[in-house]
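lol ok so funny story. i was supposed to be doing the assay writeup but got distracted and ended up predicting the structure for this chain instead. priorities right. anyway since i did it might as well share w the group, maybe its usefull for someone
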Amino acid sequence: MTSIGGVEMVDWNLAVATATRLVRPGPEVSRDEARAVVAELRRHAKSSEEHVRAFTRMAVPGGPAADTPVLVVDRAGWIKANVAGFRQILSPLLGKMQDRRGGLPGGAVLGAVGGKVTGVELGMLLSFLASRVLGQYETFAPASRELPAGAAGGGRLLLVAPNIVHVERELDVAPHDFRLWVSLHEETHRTQFTAVPWLRDHIESEIQAFLGETDVDPATLLERLREAVQSLGGGRPDGEEAAERGASPSIIELVQTPAQREILARLTAVMSLLEGHADFVMDGVGPDVVPSVAEIREKFQKRRASGAGRLDQALRKLLGLDAKLRQYRDGERFVRAVVGQVGMDGFNRVWTSPNTLPTKSEISKPAEWVARVHRKAES
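and the output, tada:
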């Protein structure tokens, strides 16, 4: 249950409307150019399957990518897809919070107001992200008339065409090479989840365990979120003072209990593995199929490291995106080190079960993972 008297904790339709209204327009392209970009991205997504499977040696049961759909979307399409995913994964937590609010005097009125406020806030955050995400394997995609679900646990691959065009122009790299390079990264994520059947359920159970540990009053949670936004937006305290005091927690840090910190450490490790593996694969496949891969990687890394204006940096901190950038770097180093020690087949033991996933400590110390997984198996 996520509503009382028909009033939801989050006004999801308002979140979509807000994000769609606020999101930046994409780069200028003609109708013919847009069609050509979409067609090329679909071709690259298809050709990437064979490249990724050959390089990773990961077999997908039931054929190529288990027939999960590839959707080339605009920024509005990405917003709709992610609101649907958030709605599904957050449903248990919102139900818990709604039940608590329902027992308060005037709970229905608070729900109506709070749902709209939260919808607007979520929409604002999504509008920021929608112009930055190049692609995404949407693990928890629900069935939808607008964005049909795939066969592999509802997952689907999204490629955000206007963002890809924007970045390739900004970096001044070969468009065809860049589009294939991005497709290789996202195809690796699709392969991870379709070739490892238990992975989706494992991550979902960890997320639900994290959310289940949340025991914050809805009004308190919203207030803490607003305080964080104010501190990041130049309100109280000012930017320099906030930095000195270590302020500006990310959203994920606002509600952590000791149990949540343990779960978050495991989730951080697995996300570092997935992102680092995708970066390793895209660069490993690259030299054979992407002639300018070295130039693309160098320019892309500089773009990642340079950041942007103060507001952009503040939002990155609030959303925990700084941590995500570390996941790419640390995870790629882990994968590279392990493959260097035990080869690709030896690395692929990581997909055996949840017990063979690296810990957060092992991500930064790959030799410890090799010792734990390989030496125990050999003894």
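The CA atoms of residues 39 and 102 lie 49 Å apart. The chain has one domain: 3-378.
back to the writeup now i swear
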